[in-house]
Amino acid sequence: MKAYNKNLKQASRDLRNNMTEAEKLLWSKLRDKQILGLQFYRQKPILNYIVDFYCPAANLVIECDGSQHYTEEGLEADQVRDEALAQLELRVLRFDNGQVMGQFDVVVEQIFQVIQNKSPSCET
C-alpha cells in the first residue's frame, strides 16, 4: 500500500461508517471486484489524506466531492492533495455528488474506461 498513514486509521473507520449517499451508491458498484475484477478500498489513508476510494492495481483514487470542494479554499486544498497523490503516481478522478447520484451509469463507465486504458494487466 502506498504511503499508508496508520494515524488516520480511526478517522477513516469513522468515515466508512458515515458515508454520503453518493459514496454509498458508488461503493455499491466498486465493492466485490465488480469492475474488471479489481479490488477497491474505501476511505483509505494515504499520506496525510483519506481518499474516498482507492484501487492499488490501477493506481487510481476516486473522490466524490460535496459542495465544500467547490469553494476557493476547497479547490486549492484539492489541488495540493491531487499533486501530492500524483507524486505517488496515483491518478485522481473527481466526481461531484450530483454526478454520482444523477448520472451514475456515466460515472461508472468513465471509471471503467480509465481503468481499462490505464492498466494493461486488466482484461475484460
Automatic annotation (TrEMBL):
Keyword field contains Aminoacyl-tRNA synthetase: no
Pfam families linked: DUF559
Taxonomic superkingdom: Bacteria
Domain DUF559, chain residue ranges per copy: 7-116
Nuclease recorded as keyword: yes
Gene3D superfamilies in the record: VSR Endonuclease (3.40.960.10)
GO molecular function: endonuclease activity
Keyword set, alphabetical order: Endonuclease, Hydrolase, Nuclease
InterPro entries named in the record: DUF559, Endonuclease_DUF559_bact, Restrct_endonuc-II-like
Protein name: Very-short-patch-repair endonuclease
Species, as recorded: Acinetobacter kookii
